[in-house]
Amino acid sequence: MSRLLLLLAVLAASGCASSPDADPRDPWEGMNRAVYSFNDGFDDYLAKPVAGVYKDVLHVEIRSRVSNFFANIQDIFIGVNNVLQGKFQDGIEDWARFVFNSTLGLAGIHDVASDMGIEKHNEDFGQTFGRWGAGTGPYLILPFLGSSTLRDAGGTVVDYYFAPLPHVRPIALRNTLYGLYFVNTRAELLDASSILDQAALDRYVFQRDAYLQRRRSLIYDGSPPREREEEVNDKPDSTVK
Amino acid sequence: MNMRKLLFAIGIFSFLAAAHAQEALAPDVLVKNVTLEVVEIIQRDKEIRTGNRAKLIQVIDAKVLPHFNFASMTALAMGQHWKSATPEQRQQLVDAFRTLLVRTYASALAAYSEQKFDFRPLRAKPTDTDVTVQVRVIQSGAQPVPIDYSMEKTAAGWKVYDVMVGGVSLVANYRTEFANVVRSSGVDGLIKDLQTKNKTLEQKK
Hints:
- By secondary structure, chain A is mostly helical.
- Chain A has helices at residues 2-13, 29-57, 60-84, 88-103, 112-115, 125-131, 150-162, 171-188, 190-199, 203-219, 228-232; strands at residues 139-142, 146-149.
- Chain A has a two-stranded antiparallel ribbon.
- In chain A, a hairpin with a 3-residue loop joins strand 1 and strand 2 (146-149).
- The longest helix of chain A has 29 residues, at 29-57.
- Chain B contains 7 helices and 5 strands; from the N terminus they run H-H-H-H-H-H-E-E-E-E-E-H.
- In chain B, a hairpin with a 6-residue loop joins strand 2 and strand 3.
- Chain A binds chain B through residues 21, 23, 64, 67-68, 71-72, 111, 114, 119-122, 191-192, 194-195, 198-202, 205-206, 209-210, 213-214, 216-218, 222, 224, 230, 233-241, and chain B through 69, 71-72, 74-76, 78-80, 82-83, 87, 90-91, 94, 100, 103-104, 107-108, 111-112, 138, 140-144, 146, 166-169, 172-177, 180-181, 183, 193-194, 197, 201.
């Protein structure tokens, strides 16, 4: 964890080395692109192939049990974040989900709460900080974890601190669970990442903008206020001829 | 009036009625009908399900494309640079961007057509000419993914001019990319990049 903080400090120090026409949201683009290509290499040679095998070998039903198991544990902290943001009703729903899924759903491997109509939410400490008024800060690519911002990286540190997984003992079990979690998560994203590869002219830029848009939408639970820039040139004349 | 004339008149009348019904279709009904129709075609067609991308693109061309306004989408993605493009450049941009979006859309459909859809009731006044139609993709163990279609009313019925997936606007997401390319190599550079991209994707499959 201290290594992550050190990295942030180094990045902050190198912030002044940005080029003049850089995107104001991404002053550390040079550094970010370097970490991005490192992550890409790791993904191409290890994560993606392993996730591909995992997906081929395990039936979708089993993979979805694995996803549900991890998702269920996260519901506790999604609830904490909802309460911290003053959304008590949502928080209670998250905890109700955890109770039903942990019992009737057999330790979370079945998402019975969704079938009962208690919908899953998406919250984390990065969003809570945003809700409390913290700006995103510069865009940041974390090693292995990918897209983030200075604020969201801070949130990730807090998420990590509260998550039960890092505290599981014995270490061998913890590492096995971690491995399963990362491979399963990457497998879930195989389709999405190949669509991203197809859609983007510059994958780095496309992914960055999508991440920033997505986080903004999540902080406002799907209905962010319109940005001013959009209102100005909302609908240019689209005549072709 | 003889029989033949009468039949002809009935034919014309029912054709007009059908055309009118199509035009008057509410935007949320339109989205629901088209989505369900396309998903059903995919689920029935073994060739498409086993990865025949060309056939899937044919289906999208026939069923989905007529409801999109690609000129609007391209203009929005170009932002301020749209003004500096000549009519020919605009046409080339629209064509190349359309090809790229259709291919992306085909991949997304192939990946997610087995999910359940939740069509949200439209929140708009009957007089509105610009609405957002909300659909949600339901998945077990995760928050539903919202898909929002921004639609405008035109003489030829309601047309989609932007799609937001999980809060990410497709059009806005291309804006920075397009602006970067235009700044470094002009509008022609962007046209060339899009065409090269499309060619590479075509060769892959």
